[in-house]
Design brief:
By secondary structure, the chain is of the alpha/beta class. About 45% of the residues lie in helices and about 15% in strands. It has one domain: Rossmann fold, CATH 3.40.50.1970. It has six helices and five strands, in the order βαβαβαβαβαα. α1 packs parallel to α5, α2 crosses α3 and α5 crosses α6. It binds the ligand Nc1c(C(=O)O)ncn1[C@@H]1O[C@H](COP(=O)(O)O)[C@@H](O)[C@H]1O. The site of ligand C2R has 17 residues, from β3. Belongs to the AIR carboxylase family. Class I subfamily.
């Protein structure tokens, strides 16, 4: 199936975070591709990846990186398709460095910055599905079903003392 979302990350070590984006896309039936691409370590590959994404049918890029997280911003600089940035939680500064690197883009080159870590990766996957759902009713129905199930789960477990 033609991937609609490109999940990229600065290092293999980011996968335990970024797999949560992949997991939610699997759940919602959104086809995606996954690749390690680094603005710092593989700059030519990043430029090739971002420049070719639109032409290859990718609609949204989810880019996760930690520390000096330049990957989402540099990807955004090379493509007109939306880029969602996930700050990976770094060991030294707990991901605050990643968050600030991703969120503080200069005007004119936006990156949609999500929360640090697992919640951000999950929400990047969900947001990608919500954007795609504007043009694809099957994906939007899957998003609505996910939301309903989430709400039902909370409502049916309202007593915090019960497991
Ligand atoms: N922030 C970036 C970029 C980039 O922005 O291009 N490339 C790698 N990295 C980050 O370096 C951290 C440590 O990487 P290693 O675990 O490979 O040493 C990772 O979180 C990665 O995202």
């Amino acid at each position: 199936m033609q991937p609609l979302v490109g999940i990229i990350m600065g290092s293999k070590s980011d996968w335990p975070t970024m797999e949560h984006a992949a997991e939610i896309l699997d759940k919602l039936g959104v086809p995606y591709e996954v690749q390690v691409v680094s603005a710092h370590r593989t700059p030519d590959l990043l430029f090739d990846y971002a420049k070719s994404a639109e032409g290859r049918g990718i609609k949204i890029i989810i880019a996760g990186a930690g520390g000096a997280a330049h990957l989402p911003g540099m990807a955004a600089s090379q493509t007109p398709i939306p880029v969602l940035g996930v700050p990976v939680q770094s060991k030294t500064l707990n991901g605050l460095d990643s968050l600030l690197s991703i969120v503080q883009m200069p005007g004119g080159v936006p990156v949609g910055a999500l929360a640090i870590g697992k919640a951000g990766a999950t929400n990047a996957g969900l947001m990608a599905a919500q954007i795609l759902g504007l043009q694809d009713s099957k994906i939007m129905d899957a998003v609505k079903a996910f939301r309903k199930q989430q709400t039902d789960t909370v409502l049916s477990n309202a007593d915090p003392r019960q497991s």
